[in-house]
Design a protein that fits this description.
This protein is mainly α. It folds into two domains: about 60 residues, Flagellar transcriptional activator fold (Orthogonal Bundle), CATH 1.10.4000; about 30 residues, no CATH class. It contains six helices and no strands. Helix 1 runs antiparallel to helix 2 and helix 1 runs antiparallel to helix 4. The protein is flat and about 40 Å long. The chain starts with 8 loop residues before the first helix and ends in a 22-residue tail after the last helix.
């Protein structure tokens, strides 16, 4: 995003996350899909987007975050730090849209 434009905190978060995911997709799509729980369709769309398109999307989303907290966010906050990774992995299917998320790196390629 242009540095002379003022962006909201939400726009800043959206931009940073999208750019981090986009850059990671350019290097290693499989690991990125696994780390960010991307579907095959999400992976394909974001990987082919231009930086200008991402900037326009972020600019239009002034007060709406593109990324939501995990369903088990409160449980992770209440858990001992040593257990958060395990709880995170075990509860990967906490998904309000009902979409089955991949459990391993190879599952992303079998997604519709």
């Amino acid at each position: 995003m242009d540095t002379h434009l003022r962006s909201s905190d939400v726009q800043y978060i959206n931009y940073q996350m999208l750019i981090a995911i986009w850059a990671s997709l350019q290097r290693d799509p499989l690991s990125t899909a696994y780390q960010f729980h991307l579907s095959g369709e999400q992976l394909s769309k974001l990987k082919t987007m231009s930086l200008e398109t991402i900037e326009r999307l972020v600019a239009s989303m002034k007060n709406e975050c593109l990324f939501t907290l995990r369903d088990n966010f409160l449980r992770l906050l209440d858990s001992p730090p040593a257990l958060t990774v395990t709880l995170s992995a075990v509860s990967i299917n906490d998904n309000p849209q009902g979409r089955q998320l991949p459990r391993d790196k190879h599952a992303i390629w079998s997604a519709p």
